[in-house]
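Researcher: I'm preparing a figure for a lab meeting and need a structural model of a single chain. I don't have an experimental structure, so a prediction will have to do for now. The sequence is pasted below. Please return the structure as tokens so I can convert it later.
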Amino acid sequence: MPNLYFCQPHAQNQGMLRAVITLADCEELVAPSSATYVGEDFPKVSEENGQKGDFAVLGFTAAEANAEWRHGYYRFEADLMELNAQLLKLTR
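Model: Understood. Here is the structure written out token by token.
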């Protein structure tokens, strides 16, 4: 099951695991076309290069990879409060 991390560069965290979600829930939260593949290493969480906004990261193991999602990590811009509200709706 894919891992969803919340990243907040201004708080200098390295990414906080927020949820372990099903592939179906993952695709309900973010379309593969709106996420950027960043490779097999977790992306840097810092304010380098002027990137100060919050973002989310999806992580897929090799066993979870499929035609739409490769093994590794995907970064996508998100309002973390809104994304959290969507997660809470999924659990109901």
